[in-house]
Amino acid sequence: MADRGVQSVLSEAELQAFAADVAAVLLPGDCVTLRGDLGAGKSTFARALIRAFLDDPDHDVPSPTFALRQDYTGQRGTIVHFDLYRLHAASELDELGFDETLATAISLVEWPERAASLLPAGHVEVALTEVASADARSIEIGGRGRAAAAVVTLLRDRENGAR
């Protein structure tokens, strides 16, 4: 985790609500990395964020595990969800248009360590881990730049009851 980290434990419903809050502060060119083991809640977070961004709670948001990328266009621009778990070589990122997407769209990147050298210096880092409760996840937010500061503030405000 980079600068300004904050951590919390959220239920699945709280995680989805927080992801919706995050969607409201993201702008084209922002990048959010999603770290965590399989089943940690990365796709749940991404789905909720994308649905909020599109203002469509029922929008079909499939996992990009096999396609490696899914694009969504809404009134505020484009959001692209990358799942790099199955990436075999860094050269595949060129085929996915990774650099261009980082510059022009909101990017959600699962398994970001497979593209670490290409991530912008200013990005939001979200780390999710399972906790003892089946309905809760530990979430840690960090990163650098405007978007990271805004997302850290959102989680701090939620923790302080300012939601």
Structure summary:
With 163 residues, the protein is α/β, with parallel strands linked by helices. The chain has helices spanning 12-25, 42-54, 92-95, 98-104, 146-159, and strands spanning 6-11, 31-35, 69-74, 77-83, 106-110, 124-130, 136-143.
Give an account of the 3D structure:
It is a single chain. With 163 residues, this protein is of the alpha/beta class. It has one domain (6-159): 3-Layer(aba) Sandwich (Rossmann fold). It contains 5 helices and 7 strands. It has helices spanning 12-25, 42-54, 92-95, 98-104, 146-159; strands at 6-11, 31-35, 69-74, 77-83, 106-110, 124-130, 136-143. Strand 3 (69-74) and strand 4 form a beta hairpin. The model has no long low-confidence stretch (mean pLDDT 89).
CATH architecture: 3-Layer(aba) Sandwich
Count of helix runs: 5
The coarse overall form would be globular
Order of helices and strands: EHEHEEHHEEEH
Number of strands: 7
Strand order of the largest sheet: 1-7-6-2-5-4-3
The gyration radius over C-alpha positions equals 15 Å
CATH class: Alpha Beta
Structural topology:
Elements (H helix, E strand, L loop, with lengths): L5 E6 H14 L5 E5 L6 H13 L14 E6 L2 E7 L8 H4 L2 H7 L1 E5 L13 E7 L5 E8 L2 H14 L4
Parallel strand pairs: 2-5, 2-6, 4-5
Antiparallel strand pairs: 1-7, 3-4, 6-7
Helix pairs in contact: 1-2, 1-5
Features:
163 residues, 7 strands, Rossmann fold, alpha/beta
